[in-house]
Amino acid sequence: MQRKGTILTIAALSVLTLAGCGSQASGQTGSGKYAAKQELNWTEPSELASSDLAQATDTLSFTVLQNTQEGLYRLNSKGTPANALATSTKITNGGKTYTFKLRKDAKWSNGQPVTAKDFVYSWQRTLAPKTASQDAFYLYQVENAEAVNQGKKPLNALGIKAHGDYKLTVQLTKPVLYFKKLLAWPLFYPLNQKAVDQYGKKYGTSSATTVYNGPFRLSKWNGTGKSWTLAKNATYWDKKSVRLDKINVAVTESTTTSYNLFNARKTDETLLSGQQIKNNSNSQDFVKRLPTGSQRLDLNEKKVAALKNADVRKALSLAIDRHQLVNDVLQDGSVAAKGYVPAGMGNNPKTGEAFNQEATTATGTSYDLKQAKALLAKGLGKKPLDLTLSVSDTDTSKQTAEFVQSSLEKLPNVKVTIKTVPYVQLINQQNNGNYELTLANWQSVFADPINFLDVFESNSSYNTGGWKNSQYDKLLDEAENQDGNQPSKRWTKLVQAEKILMNDQGTIPLFQTAKSQLLRHNVKGIIYNPAGVPYDFKTTYIAK
């Protein structure tokens, strides 16, 4: 099995309605409970990287895609896949064959109908070797997908077929109990071939070079700018359920800036950090949650020979006091990591114990400076270790980087230089393995440990640091294939894999990221998903 990254799988994709948000909207805008002006002003801490579902790799890009595009299903407020472009689904062949009937009233923003062929084209394009999609491996559960992605079979061998305009069949290699939840994720959405052919490599690099079939259209985005708008899509099949006329988004890397904008009533939302949280914890606009996202310190063994030594990697990890980082530095509700997989990613099917509790190891996230110094001496002797830490230009990243720098420089002969770059640039550098140390974020798309663990498989497109372990690969391969229908056996192997990763310190987990926020209390109907693409604005509205 050659999986390549992490993002999608299982049973409990818990989607919660954001605190302070109401049920789905009904009635007429401007009357009853709706304000006359349905316009939401929103902030994001980083720039938008892509509007091409085959090229997106970050949470923000997928959030925009989820709100501007539509697939077979959308997750409702309970996290259950509900029909969107699909009107019915028939599952046969022991769970390996899916037959979908599609609605006939869906259109693209260029006026063309959305058809079954758009799904076939989209999946084939994502898997085509020339597309070089980092997320292509998510489709490997579809018949012949891996061979197609590796150029061993033609695109038309892929197990997805259109039967006329409004009937679609998908053939899987094995039963996948969570497959409907995967289909609600933007990677599995359709694409309009006419638009992709028209814009070529520029498709999805600006709002003008993208077409839409979802609740909103992306506008006023030039591909690099720090603002954009999601405007109600007049050609969306279910536009009657969309209450907002537009969502104006501004990038504010600093929470100080976004907080000031919120207090000046120039935005309806802001992330909070440190003292801001303490000052606003009793506000009617305060929202606190803990998504299944985490921040880790990645080590590039390909760039720094010393990092190939497990004792050196362990020494760096043991030198970091994660509790001090979250309690004294970040002060935003983030939680010190117990391991690589964060809380909220599943429970033992027999005992009910949480994965991050069961899989924790003695030293994987511990703090012991004395032992760190001993291990560094064992692995490196008295040789100097000069490292560059590449991070994004957001407040949290810079605060974390300075703490990590200070912590590692307590080790003899270790020097860390911080290199700060814009978020989109950092993603590109990480994808290309162009770093020595880097702060990497990972947000799950489904609540299952595999969604994190397969990032560090040997052939993962996201494993750019070079850590490899054959036993780790074997355990994940067996868990996903051999034991796919044996939950307890599968669980045991995932726990074993996590312990291998931590005992060998293939990465250095730091904390599970909290997202405390001020959200204007009259903003209702946001659907928030802590285990995947976080925000769905389809049913959002501004109350009177």
Automatic annotation (TrEMBL):
This is Peptide ABC transporter substrate-binding protein. Residues 81-462 form the Solute-binding protein family domain. It holds the Pfam family SBP_bac_5. It is a lipid-anchor. Residues 1-27 form the signal peptide. Keywords: Signal, Transport. Gene3D superfamilies: Dipeptide-binding Protein, Domain 1 (3.90.76.10), Dipeptide-binding Protein, Domain 3 (3.10.105.10), Periplasmic binding protein-like II (3.40.190.10).
